[in-house]
Structures are given as structure tokens and as C-alpha cells.
Design a protein that fits this description.
CATH class of one domain in chain B: Mainly Alpha
Distance between the termini of chain A: 64 Å
Pfam family, one (chain A): BBS2_pf
Main location (chain A): other
Number of strands of chain A: 41
Subcellular location (chain A): Cell projection, Cilium; Cytoplasm, Cytoskeleton
Helix content of chain B: 55-70%
Radius of gyration of chain A: 31 Å
Organism (chain A): Psylliodes chrysocephalus
GO biological process, one term (chain A): non-motile cilium assembly
Largest sheet of chain A: 6 strands, antiparallel
Number of domains of chain A: 5
Number of helices of chain A: 8
CATH class of the largest domain in chain A: Mainly Beta
Order of helices and strands of chain B: HHHHHHHHHHHHHHHHHHHHHHH
CATH topology of one domain in chain B: Serine Threonine Protein Phosphatase 5, Tetratricopeptide repeat
Structural class of chain B: mainly alpha
CATH superfamily of the largest domain in chain A: YVTN repeat-like/Quinoprotein amine dehydrogenase
Radius of gyration of chain B: 26 Å
Oligomer: heterodimer
Number of helices of chain B: 23
């Protein structure tokens, strides 16, 4: 039932548009203008409504198209957004992010609202309301998220582990106020409110884009070509494609009364899906990759159209198709009937299989051999699945063992799990000589997160041509990659630790341990002053010791700060603790911070010098060009000399640029390292304590105080 | 008398050359006398000091930079696309070829020769506002140093001086104004601000000056903004205005000026800036309002007097204009442009007896060929008013002798020849006028008329 939707208008911008950097704004308060970044570091503003009668002076209208105006940015543009920043104006302000600065520009009045440096870079911008703050500009940088007010003053700051690829505002927990949703390059989507992180979703690859949808949902896209929709904690659906989703938008294209999800792909495909199920309802293709999908009233008819812009500057506008609304009810009925028929067919097939199977099993005493030939296995065949840790292997791992309870063998197994393998599926297909009734699958979990593994096992006889498929789903606990060591063998303390107090019975702690660790038998607490456990990490053989005292004092000894943070968060979540303060000491991380802070100030110094260097060379170039041109008229002999010099300076400039680039990259790395440590340290605390700590850290960094920073990380207090 | 006291006294009396001599003799005896060293620096700086706000030439378009953000801003929001007033006689007011109205007073930015950047490459004219001045400052300073430079810049231990608040500021000014070494000056400023823990607004302004000199406009903006937060100073406001002027955001510049006026009510400098900006945007009413306010505060302000005179002239009140220009004359202003304007005023207010002498004066004073051309062009109007076509043709020819690119003169010549019946000649003149200045509306109308005739 695919409906053909034809574009209502098409036009060519004749500029190459950078994918993803497309937006639309009403700069005069009424007329929409497509705004996009071109490949030559310019921002293009297409204003078809603009009447050009009043051309005065030497307006630099584009030669080819008088509806297009450009803005010179002179730095590579990283993101582009519009928003109504000024409280008493209905005009959109254009926000342009470059690698080091953000510019809020009032297009209508041709003036800056503010222009400020973002040392952490600008990777994504969102404008909106955040909790009780009316208008806030959230800027996602290389390792942190900054919030600014409409004058460019910082009002919010938080650290995220990696480059913040996308920032959106949405009401995540249905409390009527917007939360901040940030996706970052460490594969995660984090939800923040003003006090701290509310929740986190881990994806399988870098999350590239987030889009707010109506009804408290949001859509996301991943760099491996997946798109999906979340409603609170639950993922409604996701699909994977071999192309990448560039832009996602929602719009009621098919006139269903509720919007559909539109996705623009890197190969130029545009598809329209149902938000609830992900079913494709409409498809179209543009000549080349899609750069952006926006929505705006582009025909001055009082109703907004859907506008797709391709990377070559082709613009297509679509609008709601009205014909579909009437046939909607009818279509739904037919759909249901078709679905039910298909279901009936499947059930009939299944019944038939069972029939034949019982027939064979009745004849079991006469023809044992026939199993193999006819692709049938004994009815009593059971597949057993067990998950254990294996630390005796040279490469310790989590072991998934599959076995059958009779002579049938496991031909192959297909394991489907997110984030464990390259791609999402792992197939094990032992050679014929090694076919056995038991199969051991080593699993290496890169991250501490609960994983659902879906296993499909092909069971049969070595010579069978048909196999039975067993499907099993099993959940791996969060901390699977840690195995329990023999009790009392080592000392249970160390230099690196986090300590906090929980007022909870040790029995409940035991419950937590049994649920979150992969243990052969459950841990139980009988008597004594404390419960101490010693684990070994299967990834790097480091120790993890946990001591729970009767009086609630808890100590976790590990050299891995992120593991400690994960444990603290997990305990707090399990025991419903809203606020938790802890003391910690991680000498390695502290050393790292010290090193990076001193490096950072060095880098800042060099950066300033390099910048003046470049500017100085530029003025040299200017005077040299004048001299060279002068000598062309007056003194031809010295002309080559000037041009030689010019060339030398040019080379120097290129070298200088490379140095600057390196310097910049180093700075970004250093900042990222510092912010990562802060982020991890903040997760050693829970609730308001955690957000307080982050704010203290920010103050310390602004004051360039290394001691203060380390103290904050240790104690959570300033 | 104590030589240092003498030097100080000479410095105060602005006898900088003598002061330098005395300082040099002190330094010969005591090479490490910091007071004398400092004073000599100050004297050297004062000798070549220029008011770099008023003499600033804002390059209309620097051929290596794109500081201007918007290439096609909405009319009324940029100096390039100012709305042309459709009412009143002001719309027909002559402009320089860069599109600005001629007020008869030189201001920052109006000294620029009206050629395109490419033309300037072909001649020896400076391409950028900065390089010309820096070269000039550098050479002026060299003259004073007969036996080697006073300070060996390369041997200067900048970090040492940056920590000394008494010496760092004079040294900076010396480096910036006298030595022309913006680079070194900037390094000193950077270190001094760091030493002062970013608390001294003065250094921030100086740093901004350096950044402007090397064309780092946005960095300069940041420094100035943070300086304003610490301390209100008219200079800071004006410099910030200039930055916005430079990135072609006149509305931002006006905002800055207005916030400045709230802190310094009725400040003449800021109001002048506002007057200029409004005039640039063709907002004559506002501009006149500010110039009138300036005259209330400072009745001697020649710029305001001249601008008001121009306003009245183009508002068809030549008698009033004449009064303003006479006032300017009585205050000592003495230039070809002023006499030219006076002549025109007399012509239009029918005081014909004065007209010719004023133009005579203007011609005597006009050294610049462009100005001379304008005077001859205006004289042709006088001849036309007197009905002497031959004289008018002669005046226009003389105008073209001085400036062969004067398109309106070609146009007027064509009209005169047409009157004399030499239609082909008229066509030829019109065509050359059209090639010189394609935007000139009269030429097109005349050409069309000739085609149909």
C-alpha cells in the first residue's frame, strides 16, 4: 500500500552543502529561510521571500541566484542551529558553531548577539528550555556540555566522557519539564537533569544524531547505519542499513493525523516510517546524499512543508497528502485480515511438523537409523546452556557452554548480542571432524553492561541435512567479566579505593552481588563483622576487592576508577539511594590530572604565541604583495626577490598551521582526559553530591588550581 | 639645575627634542638610570604619537581578509546597503565613489581613495589601512635615531619589563607607536596582562589595539569587551564601535555607543561616532539630532557644524547652510572643500557676488586633483546658472583634466553638447560616462532619450 508522494516544489541552490549542517529559521519573524553550511566555510541563507527591489550600494548578491546570501565564517563550521534567544523578539537567531567559537548572529539586523570562545570546541548546539530555565543554549564540546544564556554567560556545565555528537531537550521522564539528552562518541546516550545524570543507554557504535519526537519519544541514529526510537527506557524499534542516516525529522507526510519519522540517508534515500513500529510507509531518492531535512512554510501558504536538501544543493519540498486520510480505516481492516491469515498459515505449518515428528518417535524402536536420514531428533532432546567465567585459559573470558543431553550434535550456533562482537551477530560453525554434542563459546565483553544474548543452536546428527533450531535468550549480568577468587588468599586493601556508607543489611548486599556478578554459587552472609569478597578482572587480571562492614561502611579497592564508578552507581540504583557521598583515592588518575593540567597551561601559552605568529605573517604577506606589485611597475629586477620571500612566508605559514593543528589536537585530547576523569569521579557519587562535585571541579579548572581539583575528586568537597 | 628636573620640565612644555637630548646626556653618564630611560621613551613616543582613533583608516575591503560576516545584509543593517532615502532632496546628494555622502570634513575612513582593491594593487597605494600607517610610523621613528636605535628590541628581556608596572606601560607605547613593532609590543602586553592576573583594563585595550593592527578582529573584540566589564572608558567604547564598523555590523556599533552614552551622558566623542554611524546608514534625522546635541555641548565642534551645514544645504536651505559654513570658517577651518561648499551655498542662496571669490579660494587651496576636479565641476554649475554654456563646457573640460574618471562631468558635457546640437559627440560622452560609473542613473536615462530622439 505504498503511496506515491510527489514533491510540491524543487529548486537548485547550486552550492555544495555539508551533510547535517542544514537548518531553517524565521529571521524576520515570519518567513522561513533555509540555512546551510557550504563546503567553502560559508553559511548560505536562502530567502525566496526577499524582494530585491531595494538594491543599494554594492550588495554582494550571489551572481547566479539572487535569493541567496552568504555569511563569511572563515573557520570550519561544525554545527548550525536557530532559536529564539531574545526574550522580547520573535525573530530567530542563527547560532554558528566552529571548532573553537560560537557565534550567535542576528541575521535580520546584521549584528552579533554574542561571540565567545569555547575552549572545548563546539560539536553540537541545542536551544530550548531546560527544566526551569527558559532559554538556554546547550553546546556539546569535545568532552563536556556547556549551557549559556542569551548573553553568552555560562550557566550550566557538565562533563561527558567523549565528544558530544548531539544535544537535544526533551521531556524524558514525563514530568512536564525538559531534560537534556546528550549522545557521545563513547556509544552512549545520557539523560541529564540539572542535578546530574538520570539515565544512560549504551549503543553499539557512535551515536551520531538525536531528534526529539512528540509523545516523550526520541529518535537516534548510529554511525553503523542504525536508526531507532526510544520511549523512556524502552526502545520501540530499530533498523539497520548499510548507509548512514544523516538527518531525521518528524512530519505528517501521509496525512495520518500523527507525524511519521522521516530519515535522510547518505545515499540520497529518503524514507518515511511509522514512529511506533518503524514500518516503511513511503520512499523517495534524491540524486545524491541527503544533507538535511527541515520543515518550514516555504510557499507562503500558512502551512509548513517538509523540505529535503541534498549535498549538491537540490531542494525538494513535500507536503501532507490528503487523499490517504479517507481510506485509512478500510486499509487497517484489510491489514488485520492479511496478518491473521499469515498467522494461521504459520500455525498450520507448525502443526504439520509436530505430526510428522510424533510419527517418527512412535517408530523409534524399529528404525533408530532413520533419525539421521530424515532430519528428526529424539523428542527428549534438551539443550542445556550455562554461562561461567573461565580464568584458566590464557585469555580469560566468559564461557558460554551449550550441550545436548544425548548423541545429537551441535552443528552450528548463531549468537546475537549487542556490542560484544564486530557487527551484532557471531556464528560458530565447527568443522565436521569436531562436531560434538557440546560447544564452548568464549565471550569477551568489552564493557560492563548487562547484555541480552540470543542464541540459535542448530541441533541434529552429523550427516543430517535438516537441523532443529533451538532458540534461547539469556541475560548476562552487568559485571560478568569478574570471577571470584578463593577466599582469604590475599590482603583486601590497596592504595586505590572508594569508600562510602550505605545503611543497608548485608543480606541485601548479597542479593545485589548475586544478581550483578556471574557466580557459580550464590554468596551468602552468615556471621562476622564484615563481608569481604575478592574478584579478578578477566580483562586485565587486576584485582577487585570489596569489603562491606556490618556498620554500613563499604570499601571498594580497585585501580580502575570507571569500574569503581560503575559499582557505586549499580549499588545505589539497586538499593534506591538518592544521595551518596564517597571518599576516593586513585593515585594514577590523580597523577594523570596533574600532568594534564600542567600540559594544558603550557598549550594555552603556545597557542597564543602561535596565533600572533600567524597574524604577523599575514601582515608581512600584505606588505610583500604591495612591494612585489610595485616592483613590477618600477623595478622589475627585485620582483623575483619579493615573490621568493612571499613563497618562503607561505611555506612558513603552512608549517605554522601544522604546528597549530597539532597543538589544537593535543589540547582537545588533554581536555578530554581531564573531563573523563571528572566524569568518572562524579559517578563515584550519587545525586546532588555528584552535581556539586562537578560544579566544584569546574570552578577549580577555571581557577587553574590542580590541588583543588584533586581534593574535589578525593573528597567531593571544595 | 638637576638635569632630570630640567628634562621633566621640557617634557611638560612639549619640547620633546630638547628633552630627549637632556635624557641622552643623563643616560651617557648613568646608563642604568631608569627614570631618564623612561622619560626618554615617553618623549620619543610623544613626538610621533598619532591619535590612532581619529586617523584610523578602515579598509573598505581588505583583499586578504573576510572580516565582514554577511555578504548580502538586509538594507539598513549595513554600511554597504544603507537605505537610500526616497523623500527630500537628500537622495540626490553627491556621494564619493565609495557611496558615502560628502560632508566636507575628513573623517576616519573617508580618506580612502575611491578605487577598487585591484586598482590599489596596481599602484603604489596601500592595500590595507594598517600597513601604510605602520610603515609611516616606523620610518618616522628611524629619523630620530642617528647613532643606532635607542632600544635594541631584540635584546629586550620582555618578561622582566612586563613585571615592572612603572616601566612596562611606557615601554609598550614606545614599542607600539615609535618602533612600529606591533609584534614585540603585543608580546609585552600579553606578558604584562598575565602578570597582572588579567585585572588591568588598560593592558586589555592595548592588547586589542595590537590585535586590530594584525587584523585579529575577533580577539580584539573579546579583549575590549572584558576591558569594559572592568572599567568604563570612552576610548574602549569607541574602539569597540570601530570593530563592529569593521565587520560591517553598524547596528551593533550603535548599540555599543548607546550603552556608552548611558554611562557617559552627552559625551561628545561618542555622540560624534553615533552621528557618523547614523549618517552612514542614511538615517539623517538621527544623525542631525546627534550633531545638534554635540553643538549644544561643544559649540566649537567643526565636524558637527559642517555636517549640519551639509544637511541644510541638501534640505534646500542654503542660507542656513551658509551660516554654518561661515561659522566653521570663523573657527579657523581653512580648506578647499569648505570654500567650495561656501561657494555653492552662495550660489544657491543668490548671493552671487561672493560665489566667484569663494570658488577662487577653493581652487587656490585645492592641491589634490580630485578636489580640484570637484571644484571645477561645481564651477560649471555656476556657469550654467549664469547661462554661459561655453564657460560651462570649459569648466567641465578642466574638471576632466584633473580627474579623467569623473563620470557626472562626462554626463553634463554630453547634455551641453546635445543642447548645442552635437548629438554624436553627446552620445560618445555618455558612453564613456556609462563605462566609468555604470550605476549613474542619469546617464542611462539620457542615453535612452538620445536613442529615441
Amino acid at each position: 500500500m505504498e503511496q506515491i508522494v510527489r514533491p510540491v516544489f524543487t529548486l537548485e541552490l547550486n552550492y555544495k552543502i555539508i551533510p547535517g549542517l542544514v537548518t531553517i529559521g524565521k529571521y524576520d519573524g515570519t518567513h522561513s529561510c533555509i540555512t546551510a553550511a557550504t563546503s567553502t566555510d560559508k553559511v548560505l541563507i536562502h530567502s525566496p521571500h526577499r524582494k530585491n527591489s531595494a538594491i543599494a550600494g554594492r550588495v554582494l548578491w550571489s551572481e547566479s541566484n539572487k535569493e541567496i546570501a552568504t555569511l563569511n565564517i572563515n573557520q570550519s563550521i561544525t554545527c548550525l542551529t536557530v532559536g529564539m534567544l531574545l526574550p522580547d523578539e520573535d525573530k530567530d537567531i542563527l547560532l554558528i558553531g566552529t571548532s573553537s567559537h560560537v557565534l550567535a548572529y542576528h541575521v535580520h539586523d546584521n549584528k552579533d548577539v554574542f561571540y565567545r570562545e569555547c575552549t572545548d570546541g563546539v560539536k553540537s548546539i541545542a536551544v530550548g528550555t531546560f527544566k526551569d530555565i527558559k532559554t538556554v543554549i546547550m553546546i556539546g564540546g569535545n568532552s563536556s556540555v556547556h549551557g549559556y544564556d542569551n548573553q553568552g554567560n555560562e550557566i550550566f556545565w557538565t562533563a561527558v566522557g567523549d565528544i558530544a555528537t548531539s544535544v537535544i531537550f526533551m521531556d524524558y521522564n514525563k514530568d512536564g519539564l525538559n531534560e537534556l539528552v546528550v549522545s557521545s562518541e563513547d556509544f552512549s546516550i545520557r539523560i541529564f537533569d540539572k542535578t546530574g545524570m538520570l539515565s544512560e543507554h549504551i549503543e553499539t557504535e557512535v551515536v551520531t544524531n538525536l531528534v526529539t519526537l512528540p509523545d516523550n519519544r526520541f529518535a537516534y541514529s548510529i554511525s553503523n547505519g542504525t536508526i531507532g526510537v526510544y520511549e523512556q527506557e524502552t526502545r520501540l524499534w530499530r533498523v539497520k542499513s548499510k548507509h548512514f542516516a544523516i538527518s531525521i525529522h518528524y512530519y505528517d507526510l501521509l496525512g495520518q493525523g500523527s507525524p511519521q519519522l522521516l530519515t535522510g540517508w547518505s545515499n540520497g534515500k529518503v524514507d518515511c516510517r511509522s514512529i511506533k513500529t518503524g514500518e516503511v510507509l513511503f520512499k523517495d531518492a534524491m540524486a545524491c546524499g541527503v544533507s538535511g531535512i527541515v520543515e518550514g512554510d516555504y510557499r507562503s501558504i500558512g502551512k509548513s512543508d517538509l523540505i529535503c536538501i541534498s549535498s549538491e544543493g537540490e531542494v525538494r519540498g513535500y507536503t501532507t497528502t490528503k487523499t490517504l486520510t479517507s481510506s485509512d480505516g478500510n486499509g487497517a481492516d484489510q491489514n488485520t485480515i492479511r496478518e491473521l491469515l499469515a498467522h494461521k498459515q504459520a500455525l498450520l505449518m507448525e502443526l504439520k511438523h509436530y505430526d510428522t515428528n510424533t510419527k517418527y518417535n512412535e517408530n523409534i524402536f524399529y528404525e533408530t537409523e532413520s533419525y539421521e536420514n530424515s532430519g528428526v531428533i529424539p523428542a527428549s532432546t534438551r539443550l542445556e546452556i550455562a554461562i561461567n567465567t573461565n580464568d584458566t585459559d590464557p585469555k580469560p573470558h566468559v564461557e558460554l557452554s551449550l550441550s545436548t543431553n544425548n548423541s545429537t550434535i551441535i552443528k552450528a550456533t548463531v549468537i546475537f548480542a549487542e556490542g560484544i562482537f564486530n557487527g551484532e551477530t557471531h556464528v560458530i560453525h565447527p568443522p565436521i571432524s569436531k562436531l560434538k554434542s557440546i560447544l564452548l563459546v568464549p565471550l569477551f565483553l568489552p564493557k560492563d553492561s548487562p547484555v541480552d544474548i540470543h542464541v540459535k543452536v542448530l541441533v541434529g546428527y552429523p550427516n543430517s541435512s535438516q537441523f532443529h533450531v533451538y532458540e534461547i535468550t539469556k541475560q548476562l549480568p552487568k559485571f560478568s567479566m569478574y570471577c571470584l577468587k578463593e577466599k582469604g588468599s590475599r590482603k583486601l586493601t590497596g592504595d586505590n579505593y572508594v569508600q562510602f556508607k550505605v545503611n543497608e543489611r548485608l543480606q541485601r548486599i548479597c542479593l545485589w552481588i548475586n544478581q550483578f556478578f556471574l557466580l557459580t554459587e550464590d554468596v551468602e552472609f552468615d556471621t562476622g563483622t564484615n563481608l569481604s569478597l575478592s574478584f579478578k578482572c578477566l580483562r586485565d587480571n587486576t584485582d577487585l576487592n570489596m569489603v562491606f562492614d556490618m556498620n554500613g561502611k563499604t570499601s571498594i579497592y580497585t585501580s580502575n576508577i570507571s569500574l569503581a564508578a560503575d559499582l557505586v552507581q549499580s549499588i545505589a540504583a539497586y538499593l534506591n539511594i538518592n544521595s551518596l557521598e564517597s571518599k576516593s583515592s586513585f593515585s594514577q588518575e590523580e597523577e594523570k590530572i596533574k600532568e594534564h593540567m600542567s600540559k594544558l597551561s603550557e598549550i594555552q601559552d603556545t597557542r597564543l604565541r602561535l596565533e600572533t605568529d600567524i597574524a604577523d605573517r599575514m601582515s608581512q604577506i600584505r606588505s610583500l604583495i604591495i612591494q612585489a606589485e610595485d616592483s613590477r611597475i618600477n623595478d622589475l629586477d627585485s620582483l623575483p626577490y619579493h615573490y621568493d620571500e612571499l613563497m618562503v612566508i607561505n611555506e612558513e605559514l603552512i608549517n605554522g598551521y601544522n604546528i597549530r593543528l597539532q597543538n589544537y589536537n593535543e589540547k582537545v585530547d588533554t581536555m578530554k582526559n581531564i573531563n573523563t576523569v571528572i566524569q568518572k569521579a562524579s559517578r563515584l557519587r550519587v545525586g546532588p553530591k555528584s552535581s556539586n562535585m562537578v560544579n566544584f571541579c569546574r570552578t577549580c579548572i577555571n581557577n587553574n588550581s590542580v590541588e583543588g581539583l584533586i581534593k574535589v575528586i578525593r573528597t567531593g568537597e571544595m | 639645575m638637576d638635569p632630570l628636573y630640567l628634562a621633566l620640565s621640557l617634557y611638560r612644555r612639549r619640547s620633546y627634542d630638547k628633552c630627549i637630548e637632556v635624557c641622552t646626556s643623563i643616560l651617557d653618564k648613568q646608563p642604568l638610570d631608569q627614570a631618564a630611560w623612561c622619560l626618554k621613551m615617553r618623549a620619543l613616543t610623544q613626538r610621533v604619537y598619532v591619535d590612532d582613533i581619529e586617523s584610523e583608516e578602515i579598509p573598505e575591503k581588505d583583499f586578504l581578509d573576510d572580516n565582514v560576516l554577511a555578504t548580502a545584509p538586509r538594507p539598513g543593517t549595513s554600511m554597504k546597503t544603507a537605505v537610500v532615502p526616497s523623500t527630500s532632496g537628500l537622495s540626490s546628494r553627491p556621494r564619493t565613489s565609495t557611496g558615502r555622502p560628502i560632508s566636507g570634513i575628513a573623517r576616519p575612513g573617508t580618506q580612502m581613495r575611491p578605487e577598487s582593491a585591484l586598482d590599489r594593487v596596481r599602484t603604489a597605494r596601500p592595500l590595507t589601512g594598517h600597513s601604510a600607517r605602520s610603515i609611516r610610523l616606523g620610518t618616522a621613528a628611524m629619523l630620530t635615531q642617528k647613532d643606532g636605535p635607542f632600544i635594541q628590541i631584540s635584546r629586550l628581556n620582555l618578561s622582566k619589563y612586563a613585571k615592572n608596572p612603572c616601566l612596562s606601560k611606557p615601554l609598550f607605547e614606545y614599542l607600539f607607536y615609535c618602533d612600529g613593532g606591533v609584534r614585540t609590543a603585543m608580546e609585552l602586553a600579553v606578558q604584562a596582562t598575565q602578570h597582572g592576573e588579567f585585572k588591568d583594563w588598560w593592558w586589555k585595550v592595548q592588547l586589542a589595539k595590537c590585535y586590530i593592527a594584525v587584523n585579529l578582529i575577533r580577539e580584539a573584540e573579546q579583549q575590549l569587551r572584558s576591558a569594559i566589564k572592568q572599567h568604563y572608558h570612552v576610548e574602549t567604547f569607541i574602539r569597540l564601535t570601530r570593530i563592529y564598523y569593521r565587520v560591517d555590523q553598524p547596528l551593533s556599533a550603535i548599540d555599543i555607543c548607546k550603552s556608552g552614552l548611558e554611562i557617559f551622558p552627552k559625551d561628545v566623542t561618542i555622540m560624534t561616532e553615533l552621528g557618523r554611524l547614523s549618517e552612514g546608514l542614511n538615517d539623517t534625522a538621527m544623525s542631525v539630532k546627534y550633531y545638534r546635541n554635540i553643538l549644544v555641548e561643544d559649540a566649537m565642534n567643526i565636524e558637527a557644524v559642517a555636517s549640519l551645514g551639509m544637511y541644510h544645504f541638501y534640505n534646500n536651505q542654503p542660507e542656513l547652510a551658509l551660516r554654518y559654513y561661515r561659522r566653521a570658517l570663523s573657527m579657523g577651518a581653512h580648506s578647499a572643500e569648505l570654500y567650495n561648499n561656501l561657494g555653492l551655498c552662495c550660489l544657491f542662496s543668490q548671493q552671487l557676488d561672493f560665489t566667484i571669490p569663494y570658488f577662487q579660494r577653493a581652487l587656490d587651496l585645492a592641491t589634490d586633483l580630485k578636489v580640484k576636479a570637484e571644484v571645477w565641476y561645481n564651477l560649471s554649475h555656476l556657469a550654467m546658472a549664469a547661462g554661459d554654456v561655453q564657460l560651462a563646457v570649459q569648466c567641465l573640460n578642466l574638471c576632466l583634466c584633473s580627474d579623467s574618471t569623473h563620470a557626472p562631468a562626462f554626463n553634463n558635457l554630453a547634455v551641453l553638447y546635445h543642447k548645442m546640437g552635437k548629438i554624436n559627440l553627446a552620445k560618445a560622452y555618455l558612453t564613456s560616462a556609462k563605462t566609468l560609473e555604470p550605476e549613474l542613473a542619469e546617464v542611462h536615462v539620457n542615453l535612452e532619450y538620445l536613442q529615441h530622439a
